[in-house]
Structures are given as structure tokens and as C-alpha cells.
């Protein structure tokens, strides 16, 4: 049987042939060109070409700043999948799990578009529509592209995205460009088939099921080729990688380097979700997920390579709303039938103009705080983590007891950088604090020096202080970056005066009293 061939960039090469890797950096442009280190998820209009900024400025997944203000939604039109992952178990008619591959309702393209129009009329800051499963978008190409075709007719202002494992990607690059899909996410967990064989039991390709090393090798080559082809066509790519301790945790630095060479715009390293009740192979065999600190360590080790996305929420395949929230229950098919849907494009644009005013105010507040921080004499190398209680809008506006997710910022004299989020079980239930739940909430942020909240009760305040985490409620309603920088400026002054002993907080320590006064230390 002759070797199967497929189109490469500028050539035809046989399957299994060595990939020609372009010797260029990735991240900021669409052609793999070298750019500024800050141009990834935290970048702004001064960090990248104008045409790239237009693509990412209101995309909550491609811009960390935008995710505070703009919403996305996924439609579950792609149930079939062409590979099996040991971390995945697709579930339909499921409303109680928050992870990829899970949906409450599978939709036809017509139903999906009806839902999108209804959501966009009610949530005018919803700017992005993605097909992310519950299987693979390109294992269901007719349904995926028919959804895009219909949506372009009815809601032409909404950005289109797909998420794919990449196996079929090279075959559909033309269609992706035909439908003006500017953003493609490829899940790439390995660039070494020996590693891949531990993650993927099988793939279905070329009309047959293939297993083991051969399957991982084919998947790897198809992923790299698809990424190269998208880069050549000016499509922005985000690479998702699942961090699996003991399998690919050390290997992800290689993944980061290789996808950067091929022009990836962002690299999103996500923690493995492996609870046994989800029924995945990894969950049932006891493969653990990484701690928040382990995840951050791998992300930090990739700094300087492909630009990192750290604000991913590992959304369901039918998620609706801002990242970190899911309003899909408000838009079930039966509820949509009862809605009076009016898609008013002018109204949507006017609302988004107001969002941009708020966003610019957030940016100005951050710059003001940075200028004030730079004027303070103190240890320039000092960095701390700060947890933030927020319910959106980029502000400190959530009660400690109502938090289900803390946003984590790394704060220094030069920056307040978003580095991740920590999910927790809500402390307040029915108006009362759950004392049994409080220790787990505190442990989730035990590497942070402070937690910024809108309000906090006496009991959690005492527990946090005992654990060396300063509870701060003096910045209610302020923009997060400004609040974090202002608190840090005050903290630096207290350290300089000797009122506070600054102690680094590492993963190996469950520190008691890292925020300690001189008197207490004595």
C-alpha cells in the first residue's frame, strides 16, 4: 500500500516524514514572527499589530483583560469524536458536572443558531461563539460548518471559534478560512508519541482504529501540520494542554517550545480533572491531578516560550456567559421558545461601547497605581500572591463567604499579573458560615499573602490571619489591579518600617504567620 500523502506548506510529504519546523518565534503575529513577550493573553493594543488586536480585544479566551468584560458561549452540535483520551468521558443530559465534554442538551445547527441569537439578544457582551464538542468539532464537520453558515446570516458580528484535537484539522483548513473562523484551539498534550501513547488509547483515522505508539505518532504529525497550515493562513491558534502529573508534566516545556516554533498565539496549560465519579480512565485508575502550585510551576517554567493563557475555566461544551460563570440553564430550548427574541445589532454595539469605557477606566486605574508603585523605594525583587474575591467586571466586589472561585494575582512593584484561579466550595450556606468548610477554603489560597474581599466575617478573618493570609476589605468596588497594587504598596511600606516580616510562601510550607508583626514574632 503506498504511503498516504497530505498537503504541507509549500510541499507534499508522506505521513511519517520529518516535519520541517520553521525557525521563528510565535505568539504575537499570525505568521510565526517574533514579537514582544507581553503580547499574549495579558497584552493590549500597544503590544501587537492592529489587525491582531482587533481579533483578540473582545475575545475572553484570547485576552485576559477581555475576560472580565466579555462573554462567550459554546453550542453542543458535535457529539462524535475521532480519538479517545484517558481524561475524557463525554456525558449528555448532564447538568451537575463542570468540565469539557459535558452537555445538558445536544443541538442541531438550527437549534444552536436559535439559541445563539437568543443569548446574544439577552447578553449583549456575548461576542464569541465556539463549537467545542461534546466530541470534536472536526469529527462533525457538516454540523459545525452548517452552524457557522446559518449564524453568519443572522448574527454576523459574533466571532466564530472551534476547538479540536487536530486529527482532522489539515483536511478542513480551507473551510475554516471560508467561514472566517479567526480562532482555533488545538488540544496538544505531547510532541513525543511515547508520551502520547500513555494519554490516547486509540484514534480513528483513515477508516480504521489505530492504537498505541502508531496512533500517537499520527495524531502528533497531524496536529503539527494543522498548526502550521493555520499559521500560514493568518488564523490565531490557542494550544490547550492538559497537565498530567507523572506523564507529561516535564514534557510540556517541549510542547510549549514546539508550538511556538509553529506560530501558536497562546498556550493554555490546564490541570487534569480526574475525579473517579466522572468515569474517565485516569479517574478510575487513580491518576491524580496537579495542585495549583504544581500547575503554576509548570506554567512559570514555560515563560519565555509561547505566550501563556492562565485564565481558562475548562468550560463545559454548552457554557454560556462570562468565564467562570455558566448561564446555560437560562437558555434551554423550552425557555427560548417562550422568549421574545429581538437581535438588535445597534443595541449590542452600544452596550459594548459602554463596556469599552469601563475597560479603559480599568486600564487607566492600573497605570495610575503602577506609577505610584514605582515611586516607592523598596525591594524591587519582592513578589507576592494575592487572592481576589470578584463576581465580575474586574473589580473587588464579592463577599468572602460567597466565593466559589478566587482569582490569583502575582503582585510586584512593576505589575499585578493574573496567574490563575482557585475553585472552592462556598463558605456561606443559607446565610451562615460552614465552619467545617472554612479550612479547605483557607488551604486553597495558603500560598497567598492577602485576600481582597468586599466583606468578610469575624470567624474567617481570624482563620485567615492565623494562616498568615491578610484579609483586606478596604478596596471594595475598586478595579482589581489597582486594589492589589495599592495594598502591595502599603505592605512594602510596612515591611520597610519593620512592622511586618516578609516571608516567602512556598508550596512546601503551610505557613503559620507569614504575615507576622514584629511584636508577634518576638
Our count of domains comes out at 2
Radius of gyration: 23 Å
Order of strands in the sheet with the most strands? 12-11-10-7-6-5-3-13
Mean pLDDT: 81
Q: What would CATH call the homologous superfamily of the largest domain?
A: Aldolase class I
CATH topology of the largest domain: TIM Barrel
Biggest pleated sheet: 8 strands, mixed
- For the record, the CATH architecture of the largest domain stands as Alpha-Beta Barrel
Shape: globular
Helical coverage, percent range: 25-40%
Total strands: the figure is 22
Commentary on this structure:
The protein is an alpha/beta fold and 522 residues long. The protein has two domains: 5-328, TIM Barrel; 346-521, 2-Layer Sandwich (Nucleotidyltransferase, domain 5), CATH 3.30.420.130. Helices cover 32% and strands 18% of the residues. The protein contains 15 helices and 22 strands. It has helices at residues 50-56, 109-122, 141-154, 173-178, 193-196, 212-232, 252-261, 281-285, 292-301, 333-338, 345-374, 438-444, 458-466, 480-497, 518-521, and strands spanning 5-8, 11-14, 71-74, 83-84, 126-131, 159-164, 183-187, 202-205, 208-211, 236-243, 266-271, 308-309, 320-321, 384-389, 405-411, 416-423, 428-429, 432-433, 450-452, 470-472, 500-501, 516-517. A hairpin with a 2-residue loop joins strand 8 and strand 9 (208-211). Helix 2 (109-122) crosses helix 3 (141-154). Mean pLDDT is 81; it is low at 1-41 and 507-522.
Amino acid at each position: 500500500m503506498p504511503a498516504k500523502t497530505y498537503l504541507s506548506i509549500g510541499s507534499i510529504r508522506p505521513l511519517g516524514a520529518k516535519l520541517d519546523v520553521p525557525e521563528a518565534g510565535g505568539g504575537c503575529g499570525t505568521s510565526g514572527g517574533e514579537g514582544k513577550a507581553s503580547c499574549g493573553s495579558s497584552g493590549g493594543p500597544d503590544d501587537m499589530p492592529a489587525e491582531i488586536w482587533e481579533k483578540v480585544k473582545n475575545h475572553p479566551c484570547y485576552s485576559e483583560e477581555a475576560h472580565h468584560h466579555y462573554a462567550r458561549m459554546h453550542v453542543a452540535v458535535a457529539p462524535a469524536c475521532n480519538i479517545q483520551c484517558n481524561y475524557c468521558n463525554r456525558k449528555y443530559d448532564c447538568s451537575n458536572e463542570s468540565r469539557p465534554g459535558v452537555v445538558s442538551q445536544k443541538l442541531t445547527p438550527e437549534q444552536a443558531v436559535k439559541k445563539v441569537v437568543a443569548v446574544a439578544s439577552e447578553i449583549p457582551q456575548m461576542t464569541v461563539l465556539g463549537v467545542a464538542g461534546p466530541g470534536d468539532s472536526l469529527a462533525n464537520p457538516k454540523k459545525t460548518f452548517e452552524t457557522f453558515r446559518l449564524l453568519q446570516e443572522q448574527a454576523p458580528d459574533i466571532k466564530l471559534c472551534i476547538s479540536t484535537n487536530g486529527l482532522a484539522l489539515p483536511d478542513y483548513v480551507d473551510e475554516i478560512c471560508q467561514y472566517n473562523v479567526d480562532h482555533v484551539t488545538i488540544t496538544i498534550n505531547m510532541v513525543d508519541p511515547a508520551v502520547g501513547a500513555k494519554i490516547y488509547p486509540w484514534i480513528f483515522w483513515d477508516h480504521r482504529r489505530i492504537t498505541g505508539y502508531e496512533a500517537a505518532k499520527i495524531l502528533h504529525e497531524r496536529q503539527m501540520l494543522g498548526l502550521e497550515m493555520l499559521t500560514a493562513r493568518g488564523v490565531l491558534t490557542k494550544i490547550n494542554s492538559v497537565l498530567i502529573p507523572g506523564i507529561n508534566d516535564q514534557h510540556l516545556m517541549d510542547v510549549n517550545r514546539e508550538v511556538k516554533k509553529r506560530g501558536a498565539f497562546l498556550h493554555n496549560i490546564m490541570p487534569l480533572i480526574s475525579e473517579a465519579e466522572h468515569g474517565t480512565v485516569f479517574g478510575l485508575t487513580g491518576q491524580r491531578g496537579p495542585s495549583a502550585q504544581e500547575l503554576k510551576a509548570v506554567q512559570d517554567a514555560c515563560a519565555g516560550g509561547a505566550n501563556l493563557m492562565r485564565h481558562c475555566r475548562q468550560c463545559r461544551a454548552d457554557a454560556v456567559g462570562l468565564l467562570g460563570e455558566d448561564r446555560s440553564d437560562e437558555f434551554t430550548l423550552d425557555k427560548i421558545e417562550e422568549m421574545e427574541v429581538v437581535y438588535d445589532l445597534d443595541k449590542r454595539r452600544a452596550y459594548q461601547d459602554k463596556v469599552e469605557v469601563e475597560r479603559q477606566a480599568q486600564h487607566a486605574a492600573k497605570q495610575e497605581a503602577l506609577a505610584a508603585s514605582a515611586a516607592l523605594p523598596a525591594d524591587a525583587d519582592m513578589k507576592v500572591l494575592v487572592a481576589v474575591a470578584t463576581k465580575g467586571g474586574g473589580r473587588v466586589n464579592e463577599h468572602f463567604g460567597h466565593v466559589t472561585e478566587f482569582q490569583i494575582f502575582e503582585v510586584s512593584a512593576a505589575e499585578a499579573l493574573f496567574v490563575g484561579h482557585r475553585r472552592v466550595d462556598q463558605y456561606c450556606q443559607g446565610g451562615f458560615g460552614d465552619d467545617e468548610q472554612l479550612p479547605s477554603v483557607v488551604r486553597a489560597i495558603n500560598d497567598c499573602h492577602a485576600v481582597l474581599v468586599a466583606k468578610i466575617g469575624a470567624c474567617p478573618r481570624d482563620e485567615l490571619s492565623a494562616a498568615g493570609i491578610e484579609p483586606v476589605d478596604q478596596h471594595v468596588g475598586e478595579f482589581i489591579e489597582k486594589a492589589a497594587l495599592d495594598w502591595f504598596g502599603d505592605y512594602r511600606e510596612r515591611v520597610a518600617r519593620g512592622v511586618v516580616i516578609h516571608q516567602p510562601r512556598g508550596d512546601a510550607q503551610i505557613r503559620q504567620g507569614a504575615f507576622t508583626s514584629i511584636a508577634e514574632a518576638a
